[in-house]
Structure formats: structure tokens, C-alpha cells
Amino acid sequence: MRNKLKDGGLYLFGNLFDKAIAFITVPIFTRLMTTTEYGLSSTYSSYVGILSVIVSLSLANSIRNAYVDYKDVLNKYLSSIFTLGFINFCVISAILVFANMKFAVVEKYFLMFCLIQSFSSFFVNSMIVKFMMQENAKKRTILQVLPNFMATILSVVLLLHMNEHKEYGRIIPMCLTVSVFGCFIFLYYLLKEHEYINLKYWKYALSISIPLIFHGLSVNILSSSDRMLLTSLREAAETGVYSVVYNFGMIATVITSSLEGVWIPFFTQKMLKADKKSVNNYARVYIELCTVFFCGLMIISPEILVIFASKKYKSGVYLIIPIILATYFQFLYTLSVNAEFYYKKTKIIAVNTVIAAGINFGLNIMFIPHFGALAAASTTVIAYFVSFLFHYLYCKRVDRELFPVRMFFLPVGTVLGFTIFQYITMDYVILRWMFGILLLFVYLLCTYWKERSLFVWIK
User: Fold this and answer.
1) Residues with Cβ < 8 Å from 454, sequence gap 6 or more?
2) I need a surface site. Which of 13, 121, 312, 366 has the fewest CB within 10 A?
3) Which helix (H) or strand (E) holds 143?
4) Considering only 72-76, 267-271, 346-350, 440-444, which range has the smallest mean pLDDT?
5) What DSSP letter does each residue of 150-211 carry, written as one string?
6) Which residues fall within 8 angstroms of residue 15, CB to CB, at 6 or more apart?
7) What is the mean pLDDT of the chain?
């Protein structure tokens, strides 16, 4: 357990460092760029997220299962699926470039950078998954931190020397740094392993990853369609405000993704040993620790936005709480999704996520034109709750012994209570902080007396 805590600490450091760079530079970017330029750069990131799923066929997600089934030949497996990804990238790029030349949907350079970064991120993400499953926290942390750090530095330098179209001051560095790392990884495995085409590996990877293409697209729609539709149906300036607030509201993912980096290999090993009692005990602690953090974040997030963002973004302060609530349900559904991954139920993962994404997209179309960013934040909460509910119900069908429903009652009730309380006291800072901290302390006491195993995580 000591090694797992060490790994968790490294994952946390990597995520904190990664996000800290983003937070520290928010005041710089929001002052060097107009809200429109910031909104366009954020929209670009949304497109990259969607394209990365399509051009890579979501093959990186198959590595989690391949680590169990092809552990001794994992590098050859990687080399083979990298070749498959490259072939698909060439086909998709040709189609999109031709379509864009004919219909002029987006600027050609915008599309070019999107395609290159999407393809390159496939290799980077593949290695991150590999290192996670190998519990190689050092390499995973380095690969997670370094590209973004380099892109941020280059962005600041470039923006200081640009007078117009400053969105490319963010786009070009992001594309360049990811491409450098991605090309190195791609060439390294091809030249070292020489496993270019292996139909057995391709068939295995595609059987897992093809359903996850729809899952990946749906996840990106869940997280990105609000910003894309705000740009299309309202204006890029409103997208800029919403994007800044969304990034602040997603601070919690620093903690949850760090813990998940430890949780996934731990969960896999315990399931292989059929030790479901330990899985449930640790899951209960996992949920309670994250609940405390989410509630604490709700208390301080409005003031964080005021401190770090310029005054032109202050209008978004009321959007933070629903975004944090949506992120909480996103965290909860990953527990069930990880179990579905273990049982290779990727088709169901895709179906459930597609339904939630469809609900989100439909609600956004209906309400964003009338209510703008507030509608985008609210529909995100509904969509992630639906996703949590659907994934949990199917997880119980696959394995009724996992995650008893009672472990969710107090944490979810607490977060919902905090949400209501935060809105009521939003304009009363001192009152909100005092009572918020008091309520959080009471929750911790109740948790301690109800569940002494809260501290089993560190034993």
C-alpha cells in the first residue's frame, strides 16, 4: 500500500503541476487574448478531442485489456495497433480535407492542426495507459506534464509577439509539442518491434475499441458540445467566459484522475483475485474522500475565479457550482465504467454514453439559444447524472456484488445539499465560508463514526 500511495502522490503531483500551469497562466491568456480568441482556442480543443477518437479508432483504450491478455508481448501489440492507427489516420484525413475543400466548413489551417494534434495524441495517450497499467508512475507523470508545460511556455512567448488571430498563439504550440512526442513514440515502436501488421492483434483491438469510438465521441460531446454550440448559436465571446469557468470547475478532476491512476490497476488486480470485498471497501473510501474534496471546492471556487480571471469573466461566477456538480457525477460513473471495461462490455459502455450525450446535445439545442451558458452548465449536470445512473444500473446487472447502492446515499445527498446551500449563500462570502466549512466538518465526523475504515486507504 505504501507503493500505491507513492504512485498516487506522483499522479497527484503530475495532475496538480499540469493544472497549476493552466491556472497560473489563465490571467495571462485572458488578458493577452480577447474573449472571442479565447473561445476559438477552446473550440479548437473541443474539435481535437472529438477527432482524436475518430482518427485513432479509440485503440488506446484496448491497452487496458491487452495488458492482461498480451502482457508478455505488449510492445509488439502497441507497434501493430500504431500501424493500424496510422492507416486509419491517412484515410480519415483524406476524407476530411477533401470535404473541407468542397464545403469550406472550417479554415484549412485550423483543420490541419486539428488532424495532426489528434493523431499525435493517440501515441501519447497510449503510452500513458501503458505506464498506468504497469504502475510506472514516474514515466506516466513525465509524459503527462512535459508536453503541456512546453506548449504553455511557447504559447506565452508567441502571444506576446502577435497582434491578431491570437487563437493560433495557443493552437500552434499545443499541436507542435504533442506532435513531437507523438512522432517519437510512433517511430520508436515501429523501428524497435517491427510488428507492423498482425491481424490477430488488430481483430482483438478493434473488437474492444470500435464500440468505444462511440463512447469516446459521446464523452467528448458531453464535455465539448456546450462550447461548440455556444460558439455557433450565441457567440465566441460567451464561449470564452464559459470555458474559463468550466476549467475552474474542473479542478476536481485533478484529484479524481490522480486517484484513478492508482484505482484502475488496483481494481484490476483485486478482480483477478475475486476479492470483491476489498474492491467495495476501497470504493467506499474513494467516494467519501472525493466527496469531501468536491464540497470543499464548491466553497472556495467563486473566489478563485475572481482572483485568477479578469473582470470580463466575472459574469460566469454562477456557472461554477453546476459544473462542479456535473464533474462529481462524472467521477461517480467512472467506477461503473471501469467494471464494464474489466468485463469487456464495451458495447454497453458505448450505448449508455451515447444516450447521455444525445440527451445533452438535444437539451443544449433547445435551451442554449434562449439561456446561453447557464443552459449549457445545467444540461451538463443532467447528462452526467443520466450517464452515472445508466452505467451503474448495467454494472449491477453484470456483477451484483460490486458497489452496493447504499454507499452512494450519503455522499450524493451531501453534494446536492452543498449545491443548494452554495447558491443560497453565493453573495454572502463570509457566511458561505463559515457554514460551508462547518457542514463539511460535520460530514467528516459523521463519516468517521459511520465508517472507521475511511483510513484503511493509508494503512
Assistant:
1) 285, 288, 289, 447, 448
2) 366
3) helix 137-159
4) 440-444
5) HHHHHHHHHHTT-SS-THHHHHHHHHHHHHHHHHHHHHHHHHHH-----HHHHHHHHHHHHH
6) 144, 253, 254, 255, 257, 258
7) 83
- Residue 451 backbone zone (phi > 0: left; psi -120 to 50: alpha; other: beta): beta
How far CA 149 is from CA of 21, 126, 137, 216, 349, in Å, comes to 7, 19, 18, 25, 33
Bin 403: left if φ > 0, else alpha if -120 < ψ < 50, else beta.
left
Asked if residue 356 has pLDDT above 80, the reply is yes
C-alpha cell at 119: 493523431
CB-based contacts of 154, cutoff 8 Å, min separation 6: 172, 173, 176, 177
pLDDT above 90: percentage of residues in the chain: 31
Q: Rounded to whole angstroms, how far apart are CA atoms 256 and 327?
A: 10
Inter-residue contact 332 to 287 (CB < 8 Å): yes
Reported pTM: 0.71
Distances (CA, A) of 122 to 65, 84, 397, 425: 17, 12, 32, 44
| Of 138 and 181, the one with more pLDDT | 181
Q: What percent of the chain has pLDDT over 70?
A: 88
- 280 has a pLDDT exceeding 60: yes
346: phi then psi, degrees, rounded to nearest 5: -70, -25
Spatial separation of the C-alpha atoms in residues 97 and 248, rounded to whole Å: 35
**Cell numbers found for residue 329:** 457525477
Nearest to 373 by CA among 282, 285, 242: 242
pLDDT tens digits, residue range 422-453?
Answer: 888 887 888 888 877 887 777 777 766 665 54
* C-alpha pair distances (Å), 333 with each of 12, 260, 384: 20, 12, 8
Cell numbers found for residue 449: 463514526
Measured distance CA(419)–CA(324) in Å, rounded: 9
Contact 426, 432 (CB under 8 A): yes
How wide is the angle at C-alpha 412 spanned by C-alphas 406 and 418, nearest 5°?
A: 150
Beta strands in 238-357 (DSSP E): none
Crossing angle (nearest 10°) for helices 199-229 and 236-249: 120
Assign residue 250 a region (left: φ > 0; alpha: ψ between -120 and 50; beta: otherwise). alpha
